[in-house]
Design a protein that fits this description.
Blueprint lengths: L2 H19 L3 H34 L4 E4 L3 E4 L6 H48 L4 H55 L16 H5 L2 H22 L1 H38 L1
Antiparallel strand pairs: 1-2
Length: 271
């Protein structure tokens, strides 16, 4: 057996033993990166659900008045398209957070599995002759074990860290925009329908009451809210899609791109 093959086997065996007995830094880094992504996605999801829940309630608010004729209005019903959009985007953000959370808990067991497979394959791989069907199977087992235990967690960690640095500013800005709109949404509180008093039987006295002004003031306030959320609909959609894209970049796109580049370099070297 060549000296190079012997050294490679010893290094891999030592790394596998250390990862099982102490700590695998590649796995720990990948877990932390995935957890950060899941937390960021969860915070955005909470903001979007706050907007969605508040607008859903606000659409059902009725402002009414009774004089000679009755007035009944649902002034925020026109926000239904915005509300539906926010709900769908929130579901997409939640899906990203689920993927990131799954990765954060799956990296550790997969790393242990890879280290165990690597150790199990190294002994026969160390003494087996090169070539043949058994040799090919052992080669694949060693490669798979090393990939699960070290290569893939390290590539994911590096890709997520690189994406962190590249996207931090834009993600912070998008989250701040959504948080501001969510705070405004939480400021909409449903009130009981207001009716004009009819105690003395005279509708002329009703006309002079303060309730008329209260009713129309309420309608004006809700109309202002309608205008605000309609004007911010593009901001909600743009910031939400930006967050989804950046989180996908951190979770999947950049790590997969780094894995693809690494595989391409390895194939080029073999060729």
């Amino acid at each position: 057996m060549s000296l190079r093959r012997t050294l490679a086997a010893l290094v891999l065996a030592l790394a596998a033993v250390l990862s099982l007995s102490v700590e695998n830094p590649a796995v720990s880094g990948a877990e932390r990166a995935a957890s950060r992504i899941a937390v960021a996605a969860g915070a955005v999801y909470v903001s979007l659900r706050a907007i969605n829940a508040t607008l859903s309630v606000a659409q059902e608010i009725e402002v009414g008045g009774s004089m000679v004729a009755s007035v009944n209005a649902q002034p925020i019903k026109v926000l239904e398209p915005v509300d539906d959009t926010v709900e769908r985007v929130a579901a997409a953000v939640f899906a990203v957070s689920v993927v990131a959370a799954t990765l954060s808990v799956a990296v550790g067991p997969l790393g242990v599995l890879g280290a165990g497979l690597l150790l199990a394959a190294l002994v026969p791989w160390f003494i087996a002759p090169r070539g043949g069907r058994v040799g090919m199977l052992l080669d694949r087992a060693v490669v798979a074990g090393a990939a699960l235990a070290f290569v893939l967690p390290l590539l994911f960690w590096s890709g997520a860290g690189m994406a962190d640095r590249l996207t931090e500013t834009r993600l912070t800005e998008a989250r701040a925009e959504l948080a501001e709109i969510a705070d405004r949404a939480r400021g909409i509180t449903p009130e009981e329908p207001q009716a004009l008093p009819e105690e003395d039987g005279s509708w002329f006295s009703d006309l002079g009451g303060d309730s008329i002004g209260d009713v129309w003031d309420g309608i004006a306030a809700y109309r202002d809210s309608v205008g605000y959320f309609l004007s911010e609909a593009d901001t909600i959609l743009s910031a939400s899609l930006t967050v989804i894209g950046l989180l996908l970049l951190r979770t999947l796109i950049l790590p997969l791109a780094i894995v693809g580049v690494a595989l391409w370099v390895m194939r080029r070297r073999r060729a």
